[in-house]
Amino acid sequence: MKHQCLVAITAGDVSGIGPEIIVRAVTDPNLRKTFSPLLVGHPKIFQQASALTGHALPLKVVDAITRDREKNREHILRILETGHYPCLNPCGDEVLSAPRGRISAIAGDAAYQYLTAAIQLARSGEVDAIATAPLNKESLHLAGHPFPGHTEILAEHCGVQDFAMMLHLPESAIARWRAMIRPNTQPLPPLLNAKCGLSIAHVTLHTSIRSVPLSLSEEAIVDKVHLMARFLQSIQCERQAIAVCALNPHGSEHGLFGDEEERLIEPAVLRCQKTLPNVTGPLPVDTLIRRAIAGEFDGVVAMYHDQGHIPVKLIGFDTAVNITLGLPIIRTSPTHGTAFDRAWQPALPADPNGMIEAIRMATVLAEHGEP
Length: 371
Prior knowledge:
It is a single chain. The chain is α/β, with parallel strands linked by helices. It has helices spanning 18-26, 29-32, 43-53, 69-81, 105-124, 137-142, 150-158, 171-181, 212-215, 218-234, 260-273, 285-294, 305-316, 353-367; strands at 6-10, 36-40, 59-61, 85-88, 129-132, 164-169, 198-202, 242-245, 279-283, 299-302, 321-325, 331-334. Strands 3-4-2-1-5-12-11-6-7-10-8-9 form a twelve-stranded mixed sheet, with helices on both faces. It is globular and about 60 Å long.
């Protein structure tokens, strides 16, 4: 087997569906041909998930990681050549006592340790990318890790200031929606010639609605547009048409409902247009999203969390991918959460499509050499 892309897959919060969707994803015969997995978590948890799903998962624990990154990588690949799945357990056995389907400091701390170990592996070159299963923010905080989520942990450990959460819908997930809202009585206009799916990045992220206007800045908007443009270039999107959202209803109606459009967003768009001619905005979001789904835009820059999350999760909840922009490493994940209400229940099998697409997207980005 040719191991072109080695992806570290973190278990996330083991009280949720993370271990189950990982087992279902890595044993998917079509996906398995495209990458090499390194599971990061407790091997007994993965074995329990294997028993839950009925998918055989022969594991072999990876020995302690040394300072020799080439030796570490070779060791992992040798395990894969034997037909086993290599598994790295960066913390102890306490996680085995974490309750299923509930908030737990034990599970929150383990999720943090799994992620930071994977970050170290990616930064040193032992793996080519990271795909993360969901963690629970309350469990994370109970364990003494006061981060809003994966994105902020990744940014801090990678030492970056300019970063963004981006949700990406592959073209296969959005094609039927495009067909529903495009006019079918006329030839497709050149403007609606989308081929690279739809991506939505966020200027502000895990913060209250009240604090959004105070958190916005012209510089932050410019940074997110450029991060989006670099991503679109990395997936070989030639058009790179980017729409920037307004913050207020109807784009503020020339200041009737707020001044952020004239004061911050429009100046940022004008700056970006000097080097990125296919950037437009600020546009009212209610019509912008419809135009984007129809294929007019490849990327959208949203001003706050729900402005971008709601349309993506409505259209492609089980197939959208969360990609962290601005990192020196590649990181993807599904867009859903831990699903405590259905975790570890044989009668309620978890859908692995989000994890499958996250791993697939990680391999695509790794093959193009783009973080």
